[in-house]
Amino acid sequence: MDAYTAILTRSSVRNYLNKAIARNQIDRLINAAIHAPSAANRQEWHFTVITDQSLLDKISNDAKSFMTHTRPIELPETLYDKLQRENFNIFYNAPLLIVISGELGKPWMAEECALAAQNMMLLAHADGLGSCWIGLGQPYLATQEGKDLLDLPPLYYPFAPVVFGHPSEVPNQTIRMKAKTNIY
Predict the structure, then answer these.
(1) Shortest CA distance to 83 belongs to which of 66, 102, 99, 105?
(2) What residues contact residue 70 under an 8 Å CB cut-off, 6+ apart?
(3) Cα–Cα distance between 136 and 162 in angstroms, integer?
(4) Are 162 and 134 within 8 A, CB to CB?
């Protein structure tokens, strides 16, 4: 699949098969991420790779509890309702979570982590895997308790939690609106 096709056809996947991701595929995802642009070529990302299902389940449950009790961000009520369901897993039962973190206060760190995540998500799609950025996990992972689970240094922030896995179904293509464009 060429890059343009990958960009046009990639969609977030929210339903995964119970099938592990091979170590060489994880290495490919990380390698794609470290080839993303970074300010002054600093390359100061930090990658936390989680494949342990019990840890993924713990983070999902703790994040759901944190989100419903503190409501740290404004979300539609339907999402808060979903977070209260016992059988809802914020990672959609994906077998792999990669959290891309960086030091708070460093210029453009959030953008660098987002670029690294995009590289991984495009490669995953081109390789037949699914991915989804998990915004519902980010507020909890940024707490001290969440950082401790990820073994992150105190000044680091989990900018990009992304899950990967083998899709159980191909998602419908999202219809994109035309962007407002000014050409001078």
Answers:
(1) 66
(2) 139
(3) 11
(4) yes
Is the pLDDT at 152 greater than 90, yes or no?
yes
Find out whether 48 and 126 touch, Cβ atoms under 8 Å.
no
CA–CA distance, 12 with 167 (Å, rounded to integer):
10
Instruction: List the one residue out of 99, 136, 101, 124 whose CA is nearest residue 12.
Output: 124
Write down the residue that tokens 């609106």 correspond to.
177
Q: Which residue has the tokens 């990009």?
A: 160
Q: Please report which confidence band the pLDDT of residue 149 belongs to, taking 50, 70 and 90 as the band edges.
A: very high
Run of H or E including 130 = strand 130-133
- Contact indicator for 104, 59 with CB cutoff of 8 Å: no
What is the spatial distance between Cα 119 and Cα 145, in angstroms, rounded to a whole number?
28
Cβ distance 63 to 79 under 8 Å?
no
In Å, how far from its chain's centre is CA 85?
Answer: 21
**pTM of the predicted model over 0.90:** yes
Nearest one of 172, 175, 181, 152 to 14, comparing CA atoms: 172
